[in-house]
Amino acid sequence: MVKSRVAAVDVGNDALKGNFGKLENELYIPNVIAPDLEDRPVIGIEELDKKEVLENIHIRVHSPALDENNVIYRVGNLATKTTNSQELDPGSSKSEEDQTLIMLFASLALDAVSTEDFKEKNGVIDATYTLGTGLPLREVKEGKDVGYRSQLLGSVHQVEFLVTPKHQGKKVNIKFDEVKVYPEGFAAYVNLIMDNDLKVINKELIDKQILIQDIGGLSTDIAVIRNRNVDDDKAQGFNLGVSESLEAIREEIRSKHGVELDSRRDVVDIITRKNDRHHIMVKGSRTNVHDITDHILLELAKKEYRFLRNVWAKNSQSEICYFVGGGSAVLKDYIKALNNKLDGYNIEFFEDENESIWMMANAYYKLITDFIQKAGSSTKTEEKATSKAK
Question: Which of 10, 218, 252, 331 has the fewest CB atoms within 10 Å around its CB?
C-alpha cells in the first residue's frame, strides 16, 4: 500500500502557510511567483548549496490542472527580486488561478524532498498526500470547491527543481489519495473550539451563535455559526480584502519617497512589526510613513466595519464576532477604534498576530487529521465485520 503523508495548506493571498506530517512541521512562503522569461544563470553546485533553499525556489511545474503548463517559475522571495513578479489580483477567484496551484505544488515538493516518508529513485520522488485545504466562503457557496478538488485528485502533478539549493535536478511526482476543501470561516471556528489533539477547549462557544469575520487579501468572509455549523444561508462573502489597500500604500510610498518595496508582504511588515512600525528607510534615513498607511487603512477599516454591521443586523442574536486572518492583523487597531466610537459590538481579535496568520493552516490540519482518524476507525470496523462474516 502506498504511504500517504498528511498536508494542511492555506494558500493565503499574502503567503502560503503549510503543516506537513506534524503540526509543528511548518512552511511559510510569500505568495509571489515570476515566470522565468530567460534562463537563470546556473551557479556551481558547491556555491548553490551554501544558499538558503526558501530564498531560491526555482522550479518547472507540469500539471494538467494548470492553464499554462510546463512553465518555469521563481517562487516566493526569489520572485520578489524580479521585475515581472505576480501576486493574486483583487477580484480573482483563488480556486481558478494557476498561481494558487503553483504555490501548493511548490510547498508539497519542498516537503517531499525533505522528508524520509518518500524515497528518491534516480532523482525522482513519488509523493502521495492526504490534503486539507480551503477556499473563501463565497467560492464554496458558488460550488467552486468541487472543480478545485477534482483537478487535484485526478492527476499526477510534477515539480522539477532547477537552480534550487540542495535539490537541483530532483523531480517530485505529486498524487493525492484524498483532498478535503473546507470553507475558511468554518475552519476558523474549528480552530477556536479544538486544541491540537482535537479535544474541545472552548466549551462555552459550542452552543453560542457567533460570527467569524475572516479578512484575507482578496476577500472577506463572515461566517455565522449556530448549532455548531456554518449557517450557509446567513454566511456572507465579500469581494474585498486588504490587497488593493496594500498596493495603494506601496504605490504612494513609491511616488512620495522613491522607495520600491518588493511585495505586499513588505507593506504588511511595515504596518505590523513590533519595532519601527510605520517607518521605512529613505536614503539611509529612518522615515515615518504613518500618514500614508493611516488614511488608506482607515478607509478599508470603515468598509470592513460596514460589513460587520450589516451581517450583525441580520443576525441580531449573535453574541460575539471573532476577527481572524492576515487582514485582521493589519486592521485591528482601526476596527477597534471605530467600534469604540460607534456601535460597541462584542468583538475580539487575537493579540498574537502569528496565531491569527496561522489559524487556517492549523485548522485544516486538525480537520484533515480528524478525517484520517475517523476513516481509519471505520476501515477497521469494516475489516472486523468482513473477518466475522468469513
Answer: 252
User: Residue 277: pLDDT above 70?
Assistant: yes
- The 3-state DSSP class for residue 53 equals coil
Which pLDDT score is estimated for 380?
Answer: 58
**Span 290-310, mean pLDDT?**
96
Q: Is a pLDDT exceeding 60 seen at residue 45?
A: no
pTM above 0.70, yes or no: yes
**Confidence bin at 275 (pLDDT 50/70/90):** confident
Which range of residues forms the domain containing residue 80?
4-186+361-380
Whether 203 maps to a domain, the answer reads no
Overall average pLDDT of the 20-43 stretch: 83
Q: Which residues of 335-360 are buried (b: 16+ CB within 10 A; e: fewer)?
A: beebbeeeeebebebbeebeebbbbb
Q: What is the Cα–Cα distance from 104 to 107, expressed in whole angstroms?
A: 5
Exposure on the CB side of residue 143, measured as CA atoms within 13 A: 0
Question: 173 has which bridge partners?
Answer: 126, 158
Around Cβ 5, how many Cβ atoms within 10 Å?
A: 18
Ramachandran category for residue 69: left, alpha or beta (phi over 0 → left; psi -120 to 50 → alpha): beta
The total of structural domains in the chain comes to 1
Is a pLDDT exceeding 90 seen at residue 127? yes
- Residue 86 Rama label (left phi>0; alpha psi -120 to 50; beta): beta
- Distance CA(272)–CA(24), nearest Å, equals 24
Q: Which grid cell sits at 116?
A: 524520509
Tell me the pLDDT tens digit for each residue of 56-105.
Answer: 999 999 999 999 999 999 999 999 888 888 888 777 788 999 999 999 99
Q: What angle do CA 328, 330, 336 make, to 5 degrees?
A: 65
Residue 109 grid coordinates: 515538493
Q: Decide: residue 255, CB within 10 A, 0-12 exposed, 13-18 middle, 19+ buried.
A: exposed
The share of the chain scoring above pLDDT 70, in percent, equals 92
Q: Is residue 54 part of a domain?
A: yes
Largest Cα–Cα distance in the chain? 80
DSSP string, 123-155: TEEEEEEEEEEEE-HHHHHTTHHHHHHHHHHTS
Q: Does residue 138 lie in a domain region?
A: yes
Q: Is residue 346 in a domain?
A: no
